[in-house]
Automatic annotation (TrEMBL):
Family membership noted in the UniProt record: Belongs to the NAD(P)-dependent epimerase/dehydratase family.
The UniProt record lists the keyword Transmembrane helix: yes
Compartments it resides in: Golgi apparatus, Golgi stack membrane
A GO molecular-function descriptor: UDP-glucuronate 4-epimerase activity
Transmembrane stretches, start-end: 34-53
Name of the protein: UDP-glucuronate 4-epimerase
PANTHER family on file: EPIMERASE-RELATED (PTHR43574)
Length: 435
């Protein structure tokens, strides 16, 4: 896809260039002075070309999707540090100062805005990768900028950058939402899951563990860790050893890594298992979003059914409910207990389902969209492919209810209405929509 475009456009590497030309050079030697002149002209031209292709910008062009991490970012300097400090400054009496990773993402944007609104200090971090349309991430960034949230452009696997951020700001909390999301992308770019969900997570936890004081960390896991479980609703204590995708496997591994950092270093950790989050400023790779786009375009949409014509259903959760769950998790997070990279006592370790508790068949989702868009969908019923999607999700939220006061209040009908209103105004109004 977009990575392949890079491949086609990328110039040949200097090494390759020399290899292709050397047979010519060899033959030219055996001719007279005119040939000699041609020979030296070739060399000269070659040197110019090599010099040209070696310019840093073209050299750092990612030619292979798994190497996208090698992109370099500009950060540092007094003006940059000033912006970082000002964005993270706490403005309410008992406010916290939060580093939000994945702040240009769907959930990250909403959480950052909500924290800022109530007076907390917020600094965003995001690498603006092109897993889906980066212009949507830029539009979210512009939205946050207007409310005073600065998003640092960088990678969570960059330890120098993260250490620098903790040097400039003594974050009390980290809301970790940066990740490679989606299940089907693993066929195209498996390395991105390792890069962000494993290496990036470990790097973040390392820096948090070394920070003084250590922050409390709330991070996004996923309902996908329940994999192919058939016992519903899914409870936090249920087995999570049957992942159905690489995405789910990296989220499950992430939970174990987080557990380890809690146990060894005294980091306070709360893992949130989100259930299919949707809403304004959402993700274009998710069904409710591209169904809306394709229904409006008059294109056929694929609707999956499980084995034996079984229903595929999701516990769709509205973004505002998820945001409330995130903020409540931050508010009830206890302090980390370690210092100087060493554990001083047991630290808080929690995991919560954040869902809506009412699974809706995907065909009903389409019916609601048809009504809201006033367009009939062209449905193509297909068998659920075995590449990561699970047939059914349903959250048991009694734990979050008890400990966070979490109570979802938006049903799918109401939430989709808000999504569609945003969608239409964003894509028709010259992308000038606001939240
Ligand atoms: N939206 C859902 O339905 C859902 C469900 C379950 C879990 N989650 C989890 O919630 C979190 C947020 O999801 P979202 O829907 O907002 O996804 P998103 O893709 O919109 O946001 C993630 C953001 O992280 C950034 N990012 C990715 N890798 C990075 C890296 N290495 N360094 C810096 N930034 C990086 C991306 O650019 C993106 O803006 C993710 O961890 C996701 O796995 C989401
Ligand atoms: C993450 O960063 C580490 C240390 O800088 C580096 O060695 C590693 O290759 C990176 N991992 C990925 C998957 O990008
Ligand atoms: C939901 O989870 C709680 C534990 O948090 C458990 O006691 C309860 O039985 C579960 N409810 C259902 C319907 O499975």
């Amino acid at each position: 896809m977009s990575q392949l475009k890079h491949l086609d456009n990328s110039p040949p590497t200097p090494g390759k260039f020399k290899m292709d030309k050397s047979p010519y050079i060899h033959r030219l030697r055996w001719h007279g002075s005119l040939a000699k002149l041609t020979f030296w002209s070739f060399i000269f031209l070659g040197l110019i070309l090599i010099f040209f292709f070696r310019s840093p910008s073209s050299n750092s062009l990612p030619s292979d999707p798994s190497r996208r991490s090698l992109r370099t970012y500009n950060w540092g300097g007094p003006a940059w540090e000033k912006r970082v400090r000002s964005s993270a400054r706490v403005r309410s009496r008992h406010g916290m100062s939060v580093l939000v990773t994945g702040a240009a993402g769907f959930v990250g944007t909403h959480v950052s805005a909500a924290l800022k609104r109530r007076g907390d200090g917020v600094l965003g971090l995001d690498c603006f990768n092109d897993y889906y349309d980066p212009s949507l991430k830029r539009a979210r960034q512009a939205l946050l900028e207007r409310s005073g949230v600065f998003i640092v452009e960088g990678d969570i696997n960059d330890s120098a950058l993260l250490s620098k951020l903790f040097e400039v700001v003594a974050f009390t909390h980290v809301m970790h939402l940066a990740a490679q999301a989606g299940v089907r992308y693993a066929m195209e770019n498996p390395g991105s899951y390792v890069h962000s969900n494993i290496a990036g997570l470990v790097n973040l936890l390392e820096v948090c563990k070394n920070a003084n004081p250590q922050p409390a960390i709330v991070w996004a896991s996923s309902s996908s860790v329940y994999g192919l479980n058939t016992k519903v609703p899914f409870s936090e204590r249920d087995r999570t050893d049957q992942p159905a995708s690489l995405y789910a496997a990296t989220k499950k591994a992430g939970e174990e890594i987080a557990h380890t950092y809690n146990h060894i270093y005294g980091l306070s950790l709360t893992g949130l298992r989100f259930f299919t989050v949707y809403g304004p400023w959402g993700r274009p790779d998710m069904a409710y979003f591209f169904f809306t786009r394709d229904i409006l375009k008059g294109q056929t949409i694929p609707i999956f059914e499980a084995a034996n014509h079984g229903t595929v259903a999701r516990d769709f959760t509205y973004i505002d409910d998820i945001v409330k769950g995130c903020l409540a998790s931050l508010d009830t997070a206890e302090k980390s207990t370690g210092s100087g990279g060493k554990k001083k006592g047991p630290a808080q370790l929690r995991v919560f389902n954040l869902g809506n508790t009412s699974p809706v068949p995907v065909s009903d989702l389409v019916t609601i969209l048809e009504r809201l868009l006033k367009v009939k969908a062209k449905r193509n019923i297909m068998k659920l492919p075995r590449n990561g999607d699970v047939p059914f999700t349903h959250a048991n939220i009694s734990s979050a209810q008890r400990e966070l006061g979490y109570k979802p209040t938006t049903d799918l009908q109401t939430g989709l209405k808000k999504f569609v209103r945003w969608y239409v105004s964003y894509y028709s109004g010259g992308k000038k929509a606001s939240g």
